[in-house]
User: Fold HECT-type E3 ubiquitin transferase from Schizothecium vesticola.
Amino acid sequence: MTPDTTRSVDHSHARHGSSDLDVLVGLWEEARFPRLPCDAPNELRDLAEDVDNPKRVHVVHKASRRHNFQSIVQKYIIQLRDGCDDESCAKPTCFTFRKQNIGRAPIRRYNTTSARTLAIYLATQDNPEHGLCSAPRPPKVPPATTNSLLFLASPRDTRTSSGLSKGPSRGSGHKRNGSALEAIPIKPRSGGDAPDKKNASGGTAKPTGASENTQEPRESRDPGFVVVEKPVSTDYRSFAANVFGTVAFKMMEWLTPAAIEEMSRKASLVKKESGASDIRVGGRTAQESRGGPRPESDGTTAGKKPSREKPSVPAPTPTDLPKSRDQTDQGASDNGEKSAKSVSTPKDDRQPASLPPPAPQRRNSNAKVRTSSGPRTKRQLSVDSFAPDPSADDPFTGLLRSPRANGGSTDKISRGIKTPSSALSRPISQISSALDGVPLETMPPPKSLDTKPKLGRSQLDGAKGSESASPKDAVGSGASSDRSCSNSSTHAADDDSELGEDDIYPQTLSRLDPDVVDFMCNTIQQDGTAERHLLEPQTVTRFHNKDRQKRTLRRKTRTETAKMPNLKLEWKMFVDQTLFYVLSDPRLALESFTSQGLFYDSHTLWYCMLRMTRIAPSLVFDALWMAAGSLFAPPKSLRSSSMPKSKLFSRHEESLSDKEAGRLISICLHALVAAAPLVDDPRQLYDMSRIRSHGLILAGSGAVAQQPSELCLQYEDAFADDMALRLARRVFAALSARNLFDRLIDVNSSDGEPTSERSGEQARHVLAPLFSQLDFFSAESAYKLEFSVKERGLHERRIPILLLDWARTVMIQDWNGTPEILAEGAFGGALALIDAMYEKRHELLLGDVQFRSEYFADRLDMVQVPIAWLTHTSTWRNLHLLDFPYLFSPSTIVSYFRAINFSRMSRAYEEASSYQEKIEVISHRFNFRTHHREVLAERLPAATSKYLILDIRREEVLQDAFDQLWRREERELTKPFKVHLGGSLGENGSDLGGVSQEFFRIAIAQALNPDFGAFAVDERTRMTWFVPGSVEPEWKFELVGLLVSLALYNGLTLPVTFPRALYRKLLGEPVCNLHHIEDGWGPLAAGLTTLLEWDEKDGLVEDVFARTYEFSAEVYGQHVTREMRPPPLDDWPQFPDISWASTSNPAPHEGNPGGDDEAPMVTNANRHAYVADYVTWLTDVSVRRQYQAFERGFLRCLHSKSLWLLTPAILQSMVEGVQEIDLGELQRYTRYEGWDASHRSVKDFWSIVMGYDDEQKRKLLEFVTASDRVPVGGAKNIMFVLQRHGEESEPNARLPTSYTCFGTLLLPEYKSREMMREKLAMALENSQGFGFA
Assistant:
């Protein structure tokens, strides 16, 4: 919450509703109403309508919001310093709670500065009312902050009467008698400030709003005193004193209701001591502030309101002093202005005994609401109105509408109820300081109102229930009044007199469209009255292609325009009112951006938001924040009586459907996107997104991308805007709430078990309208504006990137630093948006790199977090960041995956060590002999061995590996892996990693050799795939899968090339599209693509392609063909299971068993199904048994949940490594021992290596590291050390050698480059076998 957030109702105060009502009543009567200016085009007059609800008037809303904020600050200050009256209070900020929980330890009370600082911070949070105590204490003593103020008599003696009083304000003709307030309805204000054309001094009455440019000189309005702050000694080195002790912070406490009352009292005492009469501070005298009666003047000028012009006499006169309401009413009666609503009462302040007692409060069929002194129903009394007509749940609606708007006769009066005195906590004048053109001294105390029956919009437009005797009385919110031009634009006094008692309401436009938005924004920008902001660019002009068939809206050219000094102000107020009125109402906002039932396209909607956010960004974001509140209302299906949880929700609260909610979310998100700076280069969009994904503001020297500092700061200004962030948090919180509603519907519809899909309207996801907009080829959007192809292409990339940036911004700011997260709130909603966009990343033209948020990875433990994730059970409410692995880079994911494997390996090693220790203890205790110990170790090899050790002969690598890995237990396979390779040939290599790498390289090369008949290798792409119907037994495929699993588990790469489809299947992802097989079967994918894209204008599909609906493959030189029937009706034949001589089934190449040999042709109607079936048969049906055996072996060593972290691309890079070797990158990460990079021999080495081809590069890398592939993450993850190994100058010099386990190349210092080239080439060609590896 920010200082402009409205306050929710506090049910512990019986007079709270009356106080809020009094505030709105006073502001309604004193606010300057926006009206459609006279130079507006006629098209706007057709859209103009009147506003009769104070909560829908922008100036009233802004002032009441400020009042509510200051009231909350006061409550928090009292709560922090004094506590509350509830002894069992559990609010941690309450002083009472602190005293109870501190024990016997001394407690330190907050000082003035600390309490003020904390109170302002707490009041600016979301839902600050939740932190207030249920039984707050009223202010017993004046606020401590007022003790630092000194009130001194003004040294000027030329004070005029205008400094004392500005006379009665509008609407003061209603009678008030003491503490008993008459029930007086809010009525539309008259056309002028005074009913008479001439005031008491004979001057002409000024029209409404003229005070903006006709105010009296400042010295003539001298209040008669000055306020100064006591000099205090301040430590200028103190941060708190210089930041929180400033006048700006103190002003927040000086403007609280209690402080205003205290300052009024002090000012009155100073004035009395100086020998003058009471002064008015904020429109009320000190005597009135203390509850005393108003001073009464004589009746010589009763009935005539004083002019706002400067009085002609310098000294106060009785006519300039404030008149009592009785005198004003009497004067009004003498002038013939009789009101049928006012009731005559004596001038005595006491309640007359003859008046009847108050009638009980009730609600009738007319929804009549009256003020009452009794306790009120517990309702949400918010100034914000999310629905256009919330009459069912809003007790203020009837009170805040004029009876003239209801079409009812003013002669038929409802019996009013007497109410107690106003419970307003502060003078109206102080809370209305945000109102434009309203002098603080002229504002009257609030009044209580009676109401008339409230009618709907249709009735206001001429329903049968209207009883108005005059058309003037039937003015409602659905139609504008006859006079749409604001009063300040009229100059003749006769125009004002003609209005008389005509209804004058605030005016607004009922909807927006691109033309209206362009006109309003152009007007504000031309007048120079736009809000000051930090968004870039500061101003935006029209850049779409103009439709020549539409007429451009232009202001009327009038000669009188030059004489209208307030025209700019009128347009500013009217535009602000229109934006507030339309954007804060979800229904009006949806209607504004919908055309003939179709939602605006994304580009048009973004353009409208871009223009509006450059003239009034705070207003636009605040209004949309109010409208987004309707997203939290549950759907109607949840509130039906048949639902078990229907009692949890209010049935009167208006809700939006999923479609409407999705459109409203899209409007808000486009407004947020429009706040970002305009960037013309898509690469800058991507670079800025990468910078901000690391939580950075500026791109430093080591940043992932380089962009100008000016652009980085502009991005920060946009994404750190308080109002925009406030809107973003509410929208994302609403998104998580809508997802919760969907789950509740699923649970209710499935009797407790959530379903995966919903039927009908509920099946439409709330983000479906947004994604439909982002599909730039969608026919479900209304394309209102025309943009160039370049602009369309840029916008197509801009929107998804900036949506991700906003979601990341909210997540970074709301993250609590732990990997366990909640699916609720703004964080959960932002994550839900990113997750939904990731599922549609191909349609949105987004790559995996755009979804990475390295900010989280940099702050998470690389070892503990993935291990804890294995035991974490994620639910729909409790999630884990690792449940969304696309947030992390591939190198981070690989680190997490290997941390999980290392943890399991360490656990297996420790368990074996523990068993060995137990055996040693038992053997020592029972005095086992050596023979017995050996027998025990032989019978418990799986439990006692710390390593998985294989003894492999170099001439029988694969056979020995299969024999020793067969039937191994899982606890053995998860232990650290070691190999004794070539021991029979005298090799004494010690396995520290290099020998294992060599073993896997030899073993996998033999296993995938096509001569064995288990796998086939494509001659063009070098891809390895299963042989359909292989004669090899399934256990061999399982052991091959186990070899791949062991290599992956131990962090080793293999010299293999599998198609991406295999890794998709291993991770449980479907293989059904052409792009899933294009890397392994490129020519086949190209041919099938041609089939799908063929245009039958050039010939029929069956004639041109002549394909039958069959799948064919070559097996052992035989062409095998099968009709692609739906499995399991047909399956690919397996040679070991079929006896061709003893069965009637034909051989695989002899046709389709069980049917005709003639298969149907592929036509235009079935070609899409043919392609999908062909891909399925190629990757699944034809090799199903072989693959399933390979998968069983692959999963033997790996934790099933750890595979959730991987994508097919990451898994492929971990198994195969990276085949492309970048020697430039390798040189940057190489370390040197015995010399440095500037040595001659080092330069010669790199000069020789840079000339190698790909084959020689792989040999060099294999010679040093035992692998010819670069691991995932690039050369930075390779240990490549170039070590000096003596000097060699003789022709028979030593060859270079290496330590493959340590990635070290031992390079002698040769006398010439040619000698080094020769010796290095000889070493690479004869590199098989190990000395010490």
User: Anything to note?
Assistant: The first strand starts at residue 48 and ends at 50. The chain is about 40% helix and 5% strand.
